Records
---
Amino acid sequence: MYDVQSKDGSEWFYTEKVKDHFFNPQNLIKTQEEAIKYSEEADGVGIEGSPACGDMMKMWIKVENNKIKECKWQTFGCASAIASTSMFSVIITENGGMDIEKALEIKPQDISSRLDGLPTRKFHCSVLADKALRAAINDYYEKTGQINKIKKDKIKIIDKILKITDQDIEEAVLDGVRDFEGLQKRTKIGIQDKSCIQEAKQLLRFYVEKYFAEEK
Amino acid sequence: MDKEIYMDSSATTYIDPEVFEVMKPYFNYEFGNAGSMHSKGLKAAHALNLSRDKISKILNCNFDEIIFTGSGTESINLAIKGFVFKNRKKGNHIITTKIEHHAVLDTCEYLEKQGFDVTYVEVEKNGIVDPEKIKNAIREDTILISVMYVNNEIGTIQLIKEISKITKEKNIIFHTDACQAGNSETLNIEELGVDMLSLNGSKIYGPKGVGILYKKSTIRLEPLIHGGGQEFGLRSGTENIPAIIGFTKALEIAQRDRNKNNNYLLDLRDYLIENLLKIDDTILNGDIDKRIPNNINITFLNIEGEAILLKLDNEGICASSGSACTSKSLDPSHVILALGRPYEAAHGSIRFSLTKNTTKEGIDHLINVMPKIVEELRGISPVTLKMEDIENV
């Protein structure tokens, strides 16, 4: 019923599991009152994205003995974002909760495979969940005085003339760029600052492997 | 909910049974090629001529001013590219607006790459283009102005007659994309004062894969498709007679029943708008009066449009959204953004385009389920913008 065809003709659709998690999301905060209550109770809270980009995620966690006992979330996002965050919250809290370190290693393709796949074009919708978790865990570390454990994604400028960052490259990959030619067409990276081409190519490979490597 | 409530007629319409009936014989019995020198071919040629004649009467123009094409998009491409390629010596500048359909916008972007200059005129907050702004954009080298008759997303009706007064005075060719206007607006060329006009079948309860371009006989175009010289040499390829027959019948019905349908739909539209706006933090996109009688476009703040569409679909309701997630480009609606609304508002915009057979019962079902869907999705959203936040942007 929800099968959809994209404008470029490539067919894509939502699997039964995606539909199930969209219509019955797990661990979801359902009202603003609940959100306020959880903000007081949670051990860590994180926010990622912005509504202007069409995608925003807020996540609350409770931690016990270094394991994630509860993971609650809210989203301004499409069906894929709702379904993948629902699945993500299940993965990190099932069987008594996942170790923090392990939870941070979960990749979008792990979520996608548990949902029996997401349309390629919708893949980027599942990325926000692990970024929000990273923010929530950092918040937890800060509140519990484990400052040395906080890891932040530092923004690094790659193309020094056009001020193109590693995040721009990451975004391009998530939007479907796979080769350097495509990256250059989109960002104009390396056209003026030729010294950055090598590094840009390495980062491109890194992000393509990070998000789109075959699931093992 | 077993019943399907289709409110996406601006995407496409079903084929009217009356239209389908008249098309049928042309698929098998009267299958001839209008270019053939035998009775089978002559019958096809006769059907083609008769269709062209009927359409020219509806549009109040000459027989040889109607060119059949394969779609509204093709008509628009032929009008714009065909004209500027043929008339490049006269000038290099094109004027259009920021809220055109991609058939116009992408064609203009392509022409910019070919060295043409294009001005994209701003639209007012109510979704209407100010003719004065078109006038102010005119330069010495302006050769073509293209402004849509009715906007496909927000249904606003542009001031075509006012703009054509300006273009006549300045002696500039004026094309209008009328693809969304055929069901409710006049298509009388004399009245509108346009030099070219594009229409298609799939929005007027006719078949898909057929469109027409009206082109004033004095205008010369460069063909985009070369071959057997059909359609006065402007659009080669064996004529699609069943589709042309269907298009003609659909246009006849649409223009014949225009006032009746308008009266019926206006009440339903206003009833739906009134009730949907009762939900907190909602905005009507586009002018409340200067819009076609079947278009409702509303932003539900703090929710992403695709999620709304899927929940509506689950209730049997088909609509569409300006959300980035429903577009190929992952950019939200350029039309909602052009109204001066922030990105947040574009992502949560939903278009309901009623069909001529939409019932009060269907509308009531929508009115019943919408508050719950909005409440649910707002409950799970971390964004809690208010109307004031949007209006102050």
---
Amino acid sequence: MTASAAVPVLRVVDLSLRYLTRGGEVKAVQDVNFELAQGEALGLVGESGCGKTSVANCLMRLLPDNAQLVAGQVFLDGQDILPLSEDQIREYRWQRIAMVFQAAMNALDPVYKVGQQVVEAIEAHGVEPTLSLARERVAGLFRMVGLDPALMDRYPHEFSGGMRQRAVIAMALACDPRVIIADEPTTALDVIVQDRILRELKGIQQRLHMAIIYISHDIAVVAEVTDRIGVMYAGRLVEYGPTAAVFRAPLHPYTAALMGSFPSIAGEKRVLANLSGEPPNLIDPPSGCPFHPRCLHATDVCRQEIPPRVERGDQWADCWHPLEAAPALEPADNGGT
Amino acid sequence: MEANQPHTPPAAAEGLVSVSGLTRQFPVGRSLFRRATSFIHAVDDVSFQLNAGDSLGLVGESGCGKTTVGKLLVKLLEPTSGRITYRLPGLDGAAGQENAPLEASAIIGRQLRTFRRQVQMIFQDPYESMNPRRTIYDTIAEPLAVQGMGTVLDRVDMVSEILMLVGLTPPATFLFRHPHELSGGQRQRVAIARALVVEPAFVVADEPTSMLDVSSRTGIMNLMQQLAHGLGIAYLYVTHDLAVARYMCHRIAVMYLGKIVELAETEELLRNPLHPYTRALLSAVPVPNPEYRREPPSIVGDLTAPIDPPERCRFFDRCPLATHYCRDNPHPAFEEKAPGHWVACYEV
């Protein structure tokens, strides 16, 4: 695992966010805490609506008008970015922290040449003094993400899905950020292209010693590319720890259910766990532990009181009845394909 | 279903659904005044067979033609050439001969209605496959009305019963709701109910879980298996996800640019993939175990569209094993290299 003792480049403290809607206040993020060291890769996983993209939007300070920060701090290189004004945040956004968006087609403007869009990002932040230097930089970025620099003067529709995703990654890297947030970076792609892009992203991250946050519902992707994993449920981080430890022995029943319901092509075929029920309505979340209505281990105390934090080494979970260390998953055979 | 069934070659004219030499081309660049000169070979000379109660996974990347095969099998599309024959209850081929195979092109008129009962399709997107103005009852009862099954009063019971089967209980609370009041997983359950309420013999499921969250996905996968098994329904499961296909299907067929390149029993295909494309595809699938190490897939280049493809092997340009022989000869024949294990490749 990468040095966990290093100074964190990103520290999220007690982050809570709600959206004001006609139906009521949606408690999208509640008391989320985590740290990210330089060069570390964190995966945030959970079902749709669990708050993982909301956390990312807080970190980028890209929140819709109806979002309201209830509490919390986000320290980027020691500076809390949440109270900063829109002008001040511009120095952080893209230069210190950048995002690879989910839908690469929507992140690129169809009427501008792809290279031009990256050049603009560089110019807007004054990273390169002249246009020709900026273009040179973009050519370098294109090469880094595996795109032919000759493609700079093409339009997005001339790119395949994989190429567009690479261009969006190049754009995120344009201003040398310290932290990259990749929100479902490969969800719309076929597996072979996904594999290549993940390998490239991982290579770039390690070479540039960047910190990266992968946001995904695909725990197989997160298992492969991250050092640490955070499992979110109903706006809360319910389990957090080194990826290998969490996969070997999850503490939280939700983590175990998520992992047990995920089919794999490796190892023995096992019965897929059936996680019944639906994620809760965040306008009126359940009392006590938010997972109790779906949890097989739930007791009265789970229904009434917020669960305490249990720790095992570097791993923790918020649960009244954490699982024993006995492996919940069959160890997959490690013989390769 | 599992053990003693002999594995007949894919071209044999028996089984519930038999497909041989199935081909479908789509014209490119046709306009009002110009005939198309180029064609996308979406499905090219595909042969396989499905028996009653069988399940076949059709796996491949986007644009490989897997959905087109599904649509051809339910007669939403007509083939350019090739044969599909069915042996379906109530549909007899040669007059008087019970259970003789019937060719797809011969199914017209009244027989088409019986066909539409016996062969059903479940679509990918439960948000788009349902009329938002109609209640769940209307949606599920419509095929019953079309098929003239039951009286109006019976249909309430029939719909309630199928809702119970798909796990939407108690049915009374769902009957008169509209699709927007249901979650994605619940809607897909309604879609399954609509397909199964007419008691079909064969179902084509086109990526029925790809729009769903992990937890509802498992529920839908388990449900489909239980129902198909319990009701003896054969299904073709179209998916891009090999891990899902592993759990859903007895056999898996891998498609690449319109061709089936490999077909075998599921575990055999995963343990012993022969075609270089299958190997590449398998090695690209992420595994939910951080301690598992994968080798990068040995495949070059990108997926192209099969527009007027050259005669040779479709995979030639990207293949790590390609030789001069592959370059100079037509697409390799689909051959049985091991019992029940079919591959189209010169080099294995």
